[in-house]
């Protein structure tokens, strides 16, 4: 499995809320459908991975631009 990204405070709060809802449904019965909550949880994790990749690419581009600007002086 891929390494988990660093989550924002909002993402952590959403995942905690979903985990609590899943636990509540689990207490109600083991046969209660939780797929909808699991999909939302997975979507948050995937979004965080995409955000982290975007930020890494932006950092590389900014570094490259800074090097170019340094040599233009």
UniProtKB/TrEMBL annotation:
It comes from Streptomyces goshikiensis. It comes from the Bacteria. This is DUF6257 family protein. InterPro entries: DUF6257 (IPR046224). It holds the Pfam family DUF6257.
């Amino acid at each position: 499995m891929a390494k988990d990204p660093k989550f924002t405070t909002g993402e952590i709060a959403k995942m905690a809320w979903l985990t609590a809802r899943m636990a509540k449904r689990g207490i109600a019965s083991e046969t209660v459908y939780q797929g909808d909550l699991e999909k939302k949880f997975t979507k948050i994790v995937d979004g965080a991975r995409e955000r982290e990749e975007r930020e890494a690419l932006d950092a590389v581009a900014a570094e490259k631009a800074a090097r170019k600007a340094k040599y233009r002086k």
